[in-house]
Amino acid sequence: MTQLIIIGIYLSLLLGLGIFASTLFRGTSKDYMLASHSIGPFLLLMSIFGTTMTAFALVGSTGESFSRGIGVYGMLASSSGIIHSLCFFLLGIKLWSLGKKYGYTTQIQFFRDRLESDKIGLLLFPILVTLVIPYLLIGVMASGGVINGVTQGTFEAGTFPSFLENGDAAEDGTPGTMATGSKGGVPRELASLTICVVVLIYVFFGGMRGTAWANAFQTIVFMILGMVTFYVIATKLTGESSLFAALQKASEAIPKEKATRIGISQSAFLTYLFVPLSVGMFPHLFQHWLTAKSAASFKLPVIAHPIFIMIVWVPCVLVGAWATSNLIQIPPPIQANQNLVLPFLVKKLAGPVLGGFLTAGILAAIMSSLDSQFLCLGTMFTEDIAVHYGGKDRFNDKQTVVLARCFIIAIVALTYFFSLFEPRAVFVLGVWCFSGFSALFPLVFGCLYWRGVTKPGAYACILAAISSWVYLFWKSGFAEDERYTLDFTIAGTTYPTMPVFTMVVCSTLALIIVSLATQKWKPTEATLAKFFPER
Amino acid sequence: MRYVVWGLVVLLIVLHQDVWYWDDATLVFGFIPIGLFYHACISVAAAFTWFLATKFAWPQDLIEETVAEVNPEAGSFRANPVNPGGDAEAGAPA
Q1: Nearest CA among A145, A149, A165 for reference residue A157
Q2: DSSP letters of A106-157?
Q3: Helix/strand/coil percentages in chain B, nearest 5
Q4: Does A386 touch chain B (CB under 8 A)?
Q5: Can you tell me the distance from the alpha carbon of A466 to that of A126, in angstroms, rounded to the nearest whole number?
Q6: Do A100 and B70 count as a contact with CB atoms less than 8 A apart?
């Protein structure tokens, strides 16, 4: 119960922050969606970092390290330190400049203008929304799992309706029981719903300013509490009072296959480098880039991002590897669901008060991404569909904000509905979601740096990206095959590769070949002069 | 110097594929597996490289051009020159 009270207080604090931010609301949709371009370097760093560090970074990385060992860090953390900042540098600053000059709020506005194609918005909008949904799903699923995991054993049978307490029936038809369902914790369906509602409320009250503040606050919370979690788990796991002695004892117990990358293919590891390209096409990051007060605001995020990733990921990866040692017995149900490894360790090794704070830290990481994604979906709907097709005089600012909120609620309801089904590993689902965005990276890069991109080339790129993604996702059994790779045999040697590699190659080739073949459909000289001015 | 910075970025990407520590379970400082330590060093090196990039490869010309085109006194943005119907404050080019 103590954990629940602490989590409740934390959620109330967030609501208070959102309401406070709403007192500074200037009443315009521009202020609601972009905080009137007022975000400085520190807030930009914290909000961008908080947005990119999701349940994937904490719950997912710990679980994947438990499953595959320390190689997880190289697969996604150190590569992100290089590639994310590269994207901020090459794309973020240029898009910020164009957004400032031509008043863009969303990616689709930029693509419509750059390619002189109205219909490209109709193609891109459902694709971007569809790709954001699995990203939201990661957060919604993980928040429910974490709260349930740390509160297990708190409630008597009958506290919640039986359909929430008992869970699904077994495969042989045996009805579920509390022992196989919520295990006396807050049912995960209820916990996920609560988190969705809290995030919705503070996003609705605070808009982008409230979201940026909440992100900064939550990023500080999860970084500090993450370090406390690391200390507590290390010392309690080993029984050592000195942190250094505890670290040594815990790491010496890691089995060799988890302390190395023996079980990871070198070619798959190499092709993981394509996954972080996704930040170039995240709609919520595009919106965050446009909140920057000045271009100088980008310097701090570009430099500090790799270090911040390291601060969060190294402890999580170590904790996941320690959990494979003989210092702790991980029960089979937890082993079978790697999302539960971190909540299990927190519950088992921290007391109720500390456990409550640590859980708040994990939830902070999850919510600091959900909020930006919620806001961005609403912005996309109003700007790219409602205002674009309805006409800018049809809706006043108040109506625009209401429309944004209605669309957000509809998408959150859909995501919540998906979260009720059998959960997938957060890490695996995250990689699929990021791979889809990575496949669209050639589009934004080409539009910014190559005058020769044509409208048919852009359509071909998008269709190649999404069709290869759908096909490979289907081939993987919709992420059921967690180790799905595409294997290429060259000179008798087989090289497993991540699906993202094939997707990026397909979309890049489609963009280049079709653009070269359709140069007569190039945008007008006036448009090209606008995006590629003579210096 | 600009080329040196971009050369360092390429070098980082190459060094990221550290096949030499693939099956080495040595613990650096007695507690951090070398494969993890090496990649943490890659993260630090990336931050340093990006620091150099902001010093020597910062797109100052692009930024100055943007500032010149935006009218700071009015506190709003110039209307879209190609699609004049696009309203800067509402953010939606026509």
Answers
A1: A165
A2: SHHHHHHHHHT-STHHHHHHHHHHHHHHHHHHHHHHHHHHHHHHHHTTSS-T
A3: 55, 10, 40
A4: no
A5: 11
A6: yes
Query: Is residue A222 scored above 70 in pLDDT?
Result: yes
**8 Å CB contact between A483 and A75:** no
Phi, psi of B91 (to 5 degrees): 80, 10
Over residues B23-62, the pLDDT tens digits come to: 898 999 988 999 999 999 999 999 999 999 988 888 888 7
Angle ∠(A31,A34,A38) on CA atoms, nearest 5: 80
Is position A466 within any domain? no
**A355 vs A219, A233, B22, CA distance in Å?**
18, 11, 36
Q: Is residue B83 part of a domain?
A: no
DSSP B92: B
Q: What residues of chain B lie within 8 A of the CB of A318, using their CB?
A: 32, 36
Strands B32-33 and B27-28: antiparallel
**Out of A102, A314, A387, whose CB is closest to B80?**
A102
- Token digits for A447? 């539009």
Length of chain A: 535
A81 within 8 A of A308, measured Cβ to Cβ: no
Residue A449 pLDDT grade (very low, low, confident, very high; cuts 50, 70, 90): very high
- Please check whether residue B91 lies inside any domain of the structure: no
For this complex, say whether ipTM is above 0.90.
no
What is the residue range of B27's domain? 1-60
Task: Please indicate, yes or no, if residue B67 is contained in any of the structural domains.
Answer: no
Residue ranges making up the domain that contains A330:
1-439
Alpha-carbon gap, residue A437 to B16, rounded angstroms:
22
Q: A242 at the B interface (CB within 8 A)?
A: no
Structural domains in chain B (count): 1
CB A266 within 8 A of CB A272: no
Partners of A488 in the β-ladder: A495
Whether residue A206 is predicted with pLDDT greater than 70 in this model: the reply is no
Shortest Cα distance from B65 to chain A (angstroms)?
A: 9
Q: How many domains does chain A have?
A: 1
- Phi first, then psi: what are they for B92, rounded to 5°? -120, 105
